[in-house]
Amino acid sequence: MSTFKAPKGTFDLIPPFSATYLAVRDAISAPLRKSGYGYVETPGFEDVNLFARGVGESTDIVTKEMYTLTTKGGSNLALRPEGTASVLRAALEANMHKAGGLPVKLWYSGSYYRYERPQKGRYRHFSQVGAEAIGAEDPALDAELIILADQAYRSLGLREFRILLNSLGDKQCRPVYREALQTFLRGLDLDEETLRRAEINPLRVLDDKRADVQKQLVDAPLLKDYLCEECKAYHSEVRELLTAAGVAFEDDDKLVRGLDYYTRTTFEFVHDGLGSQSAVGGGGRYDGLSEMIGGPALPSVGWALGVDRTVLALEAEGIELDIPPATSVFAVALGDEARKVLFGFVTRLRKEGVATDFSYGAKGLKAHMKSANRSGARFTLVAGERDLAEGVVQLKDMESGEQTAVALDELVDAVQAKLGA
Questions:
Q1: Which candidate, 133, 135, 164, places its Cα nearest to that of 32?
Q2: What is the pTM of this model?
Q3: How far apart are CA 248 and CA 264, in angstroms?
Q4: Contact criterion met (CB below 8 Å) for 13 and 21
């Protein structure tokens, strides 16, 4: 047993389970790669103020959940709790918005960190795939991103998820609603911390998951009743575009998400098979975030989908992804000379793009063949001294059990032909 274990609230991804995670990441990013989104990768830690300004000082993420540290040089850093602020910071720093052709369309994949009570579906270290369209205010962009996420989930075979949709208004109409909501909240029986939050960002109270709070919010004023004409028209077009694309959604008047930077369109993907941690991803429009972190006005929209939660959703629906074996050909050598010859063929096959492995170590034929079976390879190459003397290698089909002698100078072509059949 090792002396050390993975930190509380985290887990290791190891084969063969890790292959499912890789497949989910590929499936989520595939529609993005086909829609003009380029890959971006940011550091795992940033200036703590990037998140305090962007995510919001009143949010649980900033006040309770961020992992922070002070460097030897005195800089205050935070492990990234989410991806949007980091990606926007990177785009601004690289002046991507000045290169022309807005919006800047980026996608990313990585690990994120939040200090919170560990439970199934909620970890202190988690994985997300995200997308951001920076620098354009267009309902079609909002609809595009929701459609691409829907396509990604459906490509995995998921069907029992729902898309919740709302509009949070803009800087013109939201202040009026904010004041009305604050007046309502001040008349409720709320704890001191929740009342403090109501004064800083009352919309965050609507996101409170406690049953006793939600019970008091039944008659809360709805933002949709305060939207200005521009926001109404914008949201109407988003809804029309989604409907035309055949993407089903549900209007949720109290959906606000957990971050301060959202404006207008906000959405969430939920899966009812996950219990209390039902959200598998979400996002929205954040037209003022660039200015919050010191950049120019750059209206933007994006989302992040949880890889961990998506895997749990697949399990809830009983979906097993069709993941091909990591190895197509496995080589078993009997004797020193055969090891040298077969190892050379393993190297050649790999150069030709064939996933090939080798039975390492000194062991008998039975143990070597057990290794071949465990590898999941479709074909096994077997050779001993007698085979080499005859200039052949035995090519065994692991499904049918059929074994054929193949000449050494024809082996690579024969393997490729078998795999292509």
A1: 133
A2: 0.89
A3: 19
A4: yes
CB neighbourhood size of 420 (10 A): 6
Span 205-263, pLDDT tens digits: 887 888 899 899 999 999 899 999 999 999 999 999 999 999 999 999 888 876 667 88
Q: Taking a C-beta distance cutoff of 8 angstroms, is the pair 160, 339 a contact?
A: no
> Of 66, 26, 64, which Cα lies nearest the Cα of 48?
66
Query: What are 403's two structure tokens?
Result: 């074994």
Sites in the chain below the pLDDT cut of 70: 1, 56-61, 63, 258-260, 421
pLDDT, position 61: 66
Separation between Cα atoms, residue 197 and residue 205, nearest integer Å: 7
Residue 163 β-bridge partners = 269
Q: Residue 78 pairs with which residues in a beta bridge? A: 46, 68
What's the pLDDT score for residue 258? Answer: 60
pLDDT confidence of residue 57 = 61
Cα–Cα separations (whole angstroms), residue 160 to 40, 150, 264, 316, 323: 31, 12, 26, 9, 22
- Which two tokens mark 205? 């109270």
CA 241, 244, 250: angle at the middle one, nearest 5? Answer: 70
C-alpha distances (whole Å) from 368 to each of 239, 333, 357, 391, 412 are 60, 8, 12, 22, 21
